Amino acid sequence: MPIYTMIGGVNGAGKSSLTGVLKAQRTDLGLIIDVDRLARQNGGFLEGGRIALQEMSRCLREGLSFTQETTLSGQRPVRAARQARQAGYTVRLYYVGISSEAEALRRIANRVAKGGHDIPAQDVHRRYAERYDALAAVLPYCDEATFFDNENGFVEVAEYRNGELICKGEYRPAWLLELQRTLQQ
User: How far apart are CA 72 and CA 132, in angstroms?
Assistant: First the structure.
């Protein structure tokens, strides 16, 4: 059965870093659709996004496993997860959480200082404010979801199974507790 893997989190959370970790650990990620790389190679995010959509459509048509990083914002992630489920895919989410919007902005500024891409602050504000609603919208389409805190390296803190967020270990970052309250409403 093919797998659609989403690596989610707000801008600056560490999605690309987690992708690198997972690539070293797993053999079932399939084609990794990297919008940032496609944007650099093809003249911007609009063109990179268009190519990424084409690649996702091709994978779904051909039944190929694939992985995509996403902020989960907007309707596209939910639509993609729903399409993948309908096409017989296992849908998997790895979510990276961080403590604050200020931390996200600090990490983005650090990335830009090192030559990486910027994200407008208003986009970060909006996506950070909507992150739990975005998660709540996509989780029903996920066969499995694993949550990582990335304050000091990736720490697995929870999983989502059978409609329930299950905390793991003793460490409970504030964002995880807030997500738990949101999902219980």
Answer: 10
Q: What share of the chain is helix, strand, coil (3-state, %, to 5)?
A: 50, 20, 30
CA distance 173 to 11: 18
- Whole-model pTM? 0.91
Q: Count the Cβ atoms, other than its own, within 10 Å of residue 7.
A: 24
Query: Where are the alpha helices (H) located in 114-172, listed in sequence order?
Result: 121-129, 131-138
- Which two structure tokens, joined as six digits, stand for 153? 């390296």
Question: What is the per-residue pLDDT for 124?
Answer: 82
Give me the domains of the chain, ranges plus CATH numbers: 3-184 (3.40.50.300)
Query: Given this model, what pLDDT does residue 43 score?
Result: 66
Length of the chain: 185
